[in-house]
């Protein structure tokens, strides 16, 4: 049975102005899940007008910070009340195993709203000791304005929350546009925001394809865009936002190196890198996708990694025995497979995997976890973001070469280090140019810590106090206190 969802504009659920719709499907079976309204130019204009009007409405503009905090806290409570429903919906629409949907997606979404609820009463200005005599100078933090929040398909609920919560905490109004592949939990999240009591026009929802996102980015009455997705689309957003020089935050692609030092516990490193590379079937921007292993231990590491990868159970996310779910779409599966074929052509050793799952899983987008050995830095699978269950192992001889090799990429979102030596950990953490370094652990962000990348991995930071900077403007006020 499929559901039908609508747009949410100015507090009302409505069909698209031209009646257009699209279908979202279950990636484990290909079956239709929902029919969703597809926003067009008229809907974008209506949503922007509603958000602009709500920005000046005393019901939102003059609300006390403590009352704004209670609204966000209420959303967190509602997410937890509907945890089972949201997790199942996320799994059906995106494909991730139900355990990941519970522990990462739904729990993370609630925690972001709760964390930023605490910030509402702590967004402070300051007094500056300016050098002009008889002059008071103070700083105000004010909302940026109307924010377009454009989210990807890999963790739709959690990423929507980590944009929506700080934007609202800072007093902005928003238009959220989820990826067309996975809109359903975002629709449900907006329903919960409505139940929590946000005034009309504060939270608006547009579902649809890239055209709706492009219209939001180019719209002259949108003040800010926050986007998570590919670096190629991020560059397009930078160009399209130039019309009114809107503020832009970008969390883009990654090609995270994982360094397995000679002294590392190999079994611990195998288990950690397997999880860090294959979480959500490798559809994670911070997934470990270049595994640098000391050459004297590379064969042992590769053999154990391949055996562990081959033993993982593929299946639908709702099956409690599933360890690896499907890729999000047939199109994406074909792209991942093309990278694997390129790896073989360029001389990488295919140790395990490298094929679509057959048999009972052949109707879904299942791809077997794939391990490559004898990979070199110039190979495509070591340089481009695959965003799938592909693990290239790259041997190294001299630890002194690691930082340079890890940094030899256009990306800089995350990196991982596996070592028992604190000096090695701290030295490499300082030398590798990436926004987050994980030592002996998985690449899962937290609401309190900054998240974002160097180089082509994006602009700005989300989460923690850095998100407050991203969603506020700073205004200086000068007051002459002397005789006029």
Comma- or semicolon-separated keywords:
484 residues; alpha/beta; Aldehyde Dehydrogenase, Chain A, domain 2; 7-stranded mixed sheet; 6-stranded mixed sheet; 21 strands
Describe this structure in words.
- This protein is α/β, with parallel strands linked by helices and 484 residues long.
- It has two domains: 3-252 and 457-477, Aldehyde Dehydrogenase, Chain A, domain 1 (3-Layer(aba) Sandwich); 256-439, Aldehyde Dehydrogenase, Chain A, domain 2.
- It contains 16 helices and 21 strands.
- Strands 15-16-17-14-13-18-19 form a seven-stranded mixed beta sheet, with helices on both faces. Strands 10-9-8-11-12-20 form a six-stranded mixed beta sheet, sandwiched between helices. It has a three-stranded mixed beta sheet with strand order 1-5-4, with no helix packed on it.
- β6 and β7 form a beta hairpin.
- The radius of gyration is 23 Å and the shape is globular.
- The protein starts with a strand and ends with a strand.
- The model has no long low-confidence stretch (mean pLDDT 97).
- Name the CATH superfamily classification of the largest domain: Aldehyde Dehydrogenase, Chain A, domain 1
The proportion of residues forming helix, as a percent range, comes to 25-40%
Number of helices: 16
Total count of strands: 21
The CATH architecture name of the largest domain reads 3-Layer(aba) Sandwich
- CATH topology of the largest domain: the name is Aldehyde Dehydrogenase, Chain A, domain 1
Rg over C-alpha atoms, rounded to the nearest angstrom: 23 Å
- Measure the end-to-end span: 74 Å
Largest β sheet strand count, sense and barrel closure:
7 strands, mixed
Number of domains: 2
Uncertain runs with pLDDT below 50, 5 residues or more?
none
What does the overall shape look like? globular
CATH class of the largest domain: Alpha Beta
What share of the residues does DSSP label as strand, in percent? Answer: 15-25%
* Order of strands in the sheet with most strands: 15-16-17-14-13-18-19
GO molecular function: oxidoreductase activity, acting on the aldehyde or oxo group of donors, NAD or NADP as acceptor
Pfam families: Aldedh
Keywords: Oxidoreductase
Protein name: Aldehyde dehydrogenase family protein
């Amino acid at each position: 049975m499929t559901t039908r969802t609508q747009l949410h504009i100015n507090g009302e659920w409505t069909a698209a102005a031209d009646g257009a719709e699209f279908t979202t499907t279950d990636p484990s079976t290909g079956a239709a899940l929902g029919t969703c309204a597809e926003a067009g130019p008229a809907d974008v204009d209506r949503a922007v007008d509603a958000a602009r009007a709500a920005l000046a409405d005393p019901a939102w503009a003059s609300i006390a910070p403590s009352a704004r905090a209670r609204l966000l806290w209420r959303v967190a409570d509602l997410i937890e009340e509907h945890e089972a429903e949201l997790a199942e919906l996320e799994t059906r629409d995106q494909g991730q195993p139900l355990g990941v949907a519970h522990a990462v997606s739904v729990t993370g979404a609630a925690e972001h709203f709760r964390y930023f609820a605490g910030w509402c009463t702590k967004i402070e200005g300051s007094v500056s000791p300016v050098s002009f005599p008889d002059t008071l100078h103070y700083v105000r933090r004010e909302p940026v304005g109307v924010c377009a929040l454009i989210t990807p398909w890999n963790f739709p609920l959690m990423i929507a929350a980590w944009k929506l919560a700080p934007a609202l905490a800072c007093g902005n109004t928003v238009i959220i546009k989820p990826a067309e592949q996975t809109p359903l939990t975002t629709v449900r999240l907006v329903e919960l925001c409505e139940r929590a009591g946000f005034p009309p026009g504060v939270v608006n929802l547009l579902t649809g394809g890239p055209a709706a996102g492009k219209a939001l980015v180019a719209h002259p009455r949108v003040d800010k865009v926050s986007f998570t997705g590919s670096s190629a689309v991020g560059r397009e957003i930078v160009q399209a936002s130039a019309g009114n020089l809107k503020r832009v935050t970008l969390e883009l692609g990654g090609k995270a190196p994982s360094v397995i030092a000679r002294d590392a516990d190999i079994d611990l490193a195998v288990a950690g890198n397997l999880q860090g590379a294959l979480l959500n079937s490798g559809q994670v921007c911070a997934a470990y996708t270049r595994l640098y292993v000391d050459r004297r231990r590379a064969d042992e590491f590769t053999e154990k990694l391949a055996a562990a990868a081959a033993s993982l159970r593929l299946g639908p996310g709702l099956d409690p025995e599933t360890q690896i779910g499907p890729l999000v779409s047939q199109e994406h599966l074909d792209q991942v497979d093309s990278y694997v074929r390129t790896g073989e052509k360029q001389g990488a050793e295919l140790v395990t995997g490298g094929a679509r799952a057959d048999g009972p899983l052949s109707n879904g987008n299942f791809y077997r976890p794939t391990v490559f050995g004898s990979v070199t830095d110039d190979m495509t699978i070591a340089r481009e973001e695959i965003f799938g269950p592909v693990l290239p192992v790259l041997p190294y001889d001299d630890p002194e070469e690691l930082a340079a090799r890890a940094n030899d990429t256009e990306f800089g979102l995350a990196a991982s280090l596996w070592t028992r030596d604190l000096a090695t950990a701290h030295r490499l953490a300082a030398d590798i140019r990436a926004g987050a370094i994980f030592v002996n652990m998985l690449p899962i962000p937290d609401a309190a810590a900054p998240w974002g990348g160097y180089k082509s991995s994006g602009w700005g930071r989300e989460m923690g106090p850095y998100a407050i900077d991203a969603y506020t403007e700073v205004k200086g006020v000068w007051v002459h206190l002397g005789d006029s």
